[in-house]
Amino acid sequence: MLTNFDETQLNGKNISSVFRLSNFYVSAFCCGKLESVIGTKLVDQIRHRFENVYIQGFNPEAIFGLQHLIEALKITLEALRRGITAANRPELDLLLRISCTTQISKAISYAGIKSGKCACFVLFSKNKRDLLKARDYALQSLPEANSTDFTVNASTRNTIATKLGLEASSNYLTDDIEFLKYLIERAALITKSARTSF
Predict the structure, then answer these.
(1) Contacts of 192 (CB under 8 A, 6+ apart)
(2) E strands of the chain, at which residues?
(3) Stated pTM of the model
(4) What is the separation of C-alpha 160 from the centre of its chain, rounded to a whole number of angstroms?
(5) Closest residue by Cα to residue 157 from 139, 137, 144, 174
(6) Could you tell me how many helices (H) and strands (E) the chain has, helices first?
(7) Which CA distances in Å does 1 have to 109, 127, 155?
(8) Residue of 41, 19, 27, 10 whose CA lies nearest to 142
(9) Tens digits of per-residue pLDDT, 112-137?
(10) Cross-sheet strand order for the sheet of 24-34
(11) Which segments of 100-191 does DSSP mark as H helices, in order?
(12) Is 48 exposed, middle or buried (0-12, 13-18, 19+ CB in 10 A)?
């Protein structure tokens, strides 16, 4: 279930920090506004140049804080370990879980990089050296990279709830912790068999 992730592991605003989940090294950061073509091209370049590194770009408005991202990634990594990811690639599995959907097109539309907006990137790998090289390559290619744009507030909560179809009277919308638990529980329900049945 939900565990507390110590955000100090990211060393405050130090975007060069790397933390560990299971047997993977992870780096997560945001950047300033960019065209979606640039973000998509960067993701493709990193996937091509660093075969041992997984990378996924997100619309930060789809992420309810760093804890949401970390908990969804924990589920993805456990599914990967068991060989039961909901998608063929673990980074796409993470996108599905963040989006709380089993449909790839909906996940990309909702949580993918948006043109003219800020973006967040998550890189993960079992090889720390490759992860650091890929992360440095990404940071050099992105405008205004930082680790501080994982916003949690009522506005973020309401935006995500609306996109997920929750009604304004929902109990989940009154408390950040309950809303985060709801998102993580929905993320855990994403499976490959559920994907094929929709």
Answers:
(1) 84, 85, 86, 87
(2) 19-21, 24-34, 54-58, 117-125
(3) 0.87
(4) 14
(5) 174
(6) 8, 4
(7) 28, 27, 25
(8) 41
(9) 999 999 999 999 999 999 999 999 99
(10) 19-21, 24-34, 117-125, 54-58
(11) 104-111, 128-141, 154-164, 176-188
(12) exposed
**What are the structure tokens assigned to 30, written together?**
């945001």
Please, what are the domains in the chain? 7-197 (3.30.2380.10)
3-state secondary structure of 15: coil
Is residue 99 within 8 A of residue 69, CB to CB? The reply is no
Q: Which amino acid is at 144?
A: E
Q: Look up residue 138 and give its two tokens.
A: 């990404």
Q: What is the pLDDT of residues 3-44, one digit of tens each?
A: 444 443 443 444 557 999 999 999 999 998 888 788 899 999
CB 106 within 8 A of CB 198: no
Structure tokens, 131:
């992860």
